[in-house]
Amino acid sequence: MSVIQLETEDRLEYNFVPNNAGFVQFRVRAANDAHIALTTQAAECDPMYEIFIGGWGNSKSIIRKNRTKPDVAEVPTPGILNPNEFRGFWIRWQNGTISVGRENEVPPFLSWNDYEPVNIEYVGVCTGWGASGSWVIEPPRGGPGGFGGAPPSNYTQPRSNFSSVCWAPSRGGQVPPRAFAGGEDNGEPLYVIRAQFNGALIPGKLVPSHGTGYVAWGGNENAVPEYEVLCDFPGQWIATSGGNIPPNALTAGQSEEGEPLYIGRVVHDGALTVGKVQQSHGVCYIPYGGQELSFPDYEVLVQ
Hints:
By secondary structure, the chain is mainly β. The protein has two domains: 4-157, Jelly Rolls (Sandwich); 163-302, no CATH class. Helices cover 3% and strands 52% of the residues. The chain contains two helices and 26 strands. It has helices at 55-58, 160-163; strands at residues 4-8, 15-18, 23-30, 34-39, 48-54, 60-65, 73-76, 87-94, 97-102, 110-113, 122-127, 133-137, 166-171, 181-185, 188-197, 200-207, 212-217, 220-224, 226-231, 236-241, 251-254, 260-268, 271-278, 283-288, 291-295, 297-302. The strands form four sheets. Strands 13, 14, 15, 16, 17, 18 and 19 form a seven-stranded antiparallel β-sheet that branches. Strands 20, 21, 22, 23, 24, 25 and 26 form a seven-stranded antiparallel β-sheet that branches. The two termini are 34 Å apart. Mean pLDDT is 87; it is low at 141-164. This is Farnesoic acid O-methyl transferase domain-containing protein. InterPro entries: DM9_repeat (IPR006616), Methyltransf_FA (IPR022041). Residues 12-139 form the Farnesoic acid O-methyl transferase domain.
């Protein structure tokens, strides 16, 4: 099936197309409130996810489930839509994680982990709150339930080193099967995680005996009771320094400003501790002893 083009009125009524591929890419031209529904059938129903891009007067974007408040994820996105030009986006749903990103950008600007995942079969789009919209929806890769056929030449997905790895939602110190151990502290394995914190998606460490994960941010070691664990990952560690990031480094998150974050580790105080690498800062930050510590020499995780 070819690219789908739709016009949506200012009516908040979804137009549904089948898609169980786990990914959709689209372009939309609207002044505000581009709404996307991920559902089990071609109708508004429970369970259902909704993503509002450019809501509240084109000032923020949110994810909600089953049309209930409060919204489960929210991020400021002033001016993200434009009534005079198409803006491209992608949405991915995998292992209970809903991620929303801009076209040709790897890290999502909005994401949320659902510990009771929904089996998505349809994608719906609509506009409202004073806005109409023009949509161009790309077909997902062929397969059961998808549109079938080869994708068009201008179809792009987030880079494989971000989208193809497995991030399993977890909480409370629980370790999913085949979790990737990236460090060690006093004989206890430390697992590679990432978590939402203060508008950023930050790589960090899971210490199972503490019942929580930790991420470095704002000068502190911050506990995160809910997180995603890297699983089934065949990668390796490469020694580097400063802002020298190998091209095959695993992109695992983004700063609150949208800069990609990578997974790094260092030996400190006898522990091999996992943290985040922010290229523009030229260091690896680790959460340790209640603090955010920085190191110019570190190892970075690649695949």
